[in-house]
Amino acid sequence: MTWWRGAIDGGGHIGATALAMVWLTLWPLVLGLTLSGAVQSFVRRDEMVRVLGTHRPRAIVASSLLGMASSSCSYAASALARSMVVKGADFVSAMVFMMASTNLVIELGFVLVSLLGWQFAASEFVGGGLMILLLAVGGAYVFGGTRMRQVLAAHSSPTAGGAVLDGVGDKRTLARRLRSTGGWVDAASYAVADFTMLRKELIGGYGIAAIISVCVPERAWSVLFFHGHGVWTTVENAVVAPLIAVASFVCSVGNIPLAAALWINGLGFGGVIAFIFADLITFPLLLVYRRYYGTAIALRLFLLFWAVMAGAGLLTGVLIGAAHLVPARHHAATFSSAFSWNVTTFANFVALALALVLYVLHRQRSRWGGGVGYAIDPVCGMQVERALAPANAVVDGAPYFFCSDGCHERFVENPVRYLHETVKGMENSDLLVDPVCGMRVTPSDSASTRKYDGTTYWFCCEGCAERFEKDPASFH
User: Quick one: average pLDDT of 252-275?
Assistant: First the structure.
């Protein structure tokens, strides 16, 4: 009886700690996702491929900036980078883009400030720049040989199993997109979709961090990390920390709570930065690289990324330490399970209201002119641009678009699991037919709607809607 009571009390403590972490980081997470959604909605992704043809300094800078503007989870970023390589982008520039889109992102900085302090957020961008520089130099050497170029060419053709970008996307100018109501609705959909896509990583990150904070004794960390050996301690922390990320299976923003737990338990500043950067070498992603590029390239990617992440973390720790900005104590924001009225509480209520508005706009996007040219990945919930989707599939005449090959493969294996009753019976009222082209659409993912003679019609694209509007009787 005592054992069970202790287990229940321990579980309750872990749960309370995890919820306290969530509450502490709620407003920066919502704000970061909102701003990230706006950037993704208004930056044209088809421009990315065109500027990444080499790994010269200008292309590296462009790929870094485009990656920052294309915030996404590690899996979607790897798929998009793969698609760019297939379409002719330089391999090293594509890897720089992938690294920037997961590590130099808005929501990551906000959550870092909330949990660990502004020093860590500043180090994200300082270290991110160093990491990209190291990757550009090291990547040119590792993948620059004739043999490696031949191996890459063999694994980077459209028939090699990878995703392929197709189409050109939205051609409107930035000013016109900013004035478009639909553009802001699409920004809301990006924010909601990004949260949906990251929910497992976030749950995993908060859960693992809570378990570490509550259950792992401090003496256990002294076995894993050196202490009191000066520069060797700093080097060892930066080298070992990325390996923890490999085993943690947690990536993107989800690894920040775990980074906070490691910092509290004695991991050095540079080691924490290296761990945060290492979300691109989690074990599932290494398997993705192997499928995309083959074993030889995947192994080189792992070793290069590990060296780059450890090196950037080490150098960042040295630079921040030289500027006397490293926090003197290893502590994070207080994870209190007791409710209190303070600035964070009010900010969280505002964030919840904003999240509700974003969700309503996302659910009603067709009414406000949003969703044109976009679709929701039925597997992970990510919003993807139809013309640039890495993969797609057709079920019962209805097209579905995916953020990556992984989501596409999971869908093809068992589409009913992800479409529920939509593909089980044609009598479901949620499955309708575009009256112009005959394509099956769902109201939630339709590009546009029109009303005629008291009936609402859903369309796969704005072009079909405009044709219907000119002569609705001919399609009635």
Answer: 81
* Rounded Cα gap, residues 371 and 265, in angstroms: 45
Highest mean pLDDT among 149-158, 179-188, 447-456: 179-188
Residue 360 token pair = 């309503």
Whole-number Å distance between alpha carbons of 60 and 38:
24
Query: Tokens at residue 416, please?
Result: 């009913």
What is the pTM assigned to this prediction?
0.64
Among residues 457, 445, 462, the alpha carbon closest in space to that of 398 is found at 445
pLDDT-derived band of residue 20, with 50, 70 and 90 as boundaries? confident
| Chain centre to alpha carbon of residue 119 | 23
Closest listed residue to residue 17, CA positions, set 197, 201, 219, 215? 215
The string of pLDDT tens digits covering residues 34-61 is 877 776 777 665 666 666 666 778 888 8
Distance in angstroms (rounded) separating the CA atoms of residues 150 and 133: 25
CA quadruple 322, 275, 299, 389: dihedral positive or negative?
Answer: negative
**Distance (Å, rounded) from C-alpha 104 to C-alpha 126?**
10
Q: Which H or E element spans position 88?
A: none
Burial 64-85 (b: 16+ CB within 10 A, else e): bbbbbbbbbbbbbbbbbbbbbb
Q: Within 10 Å of residue 119's Cβ, how many Cβ atoms?
A: 16
Cα–Cα distances in Å, from 457 out to 134, 180, 434, 441, 464?
Answer: 54, 23, 7, 10, 11
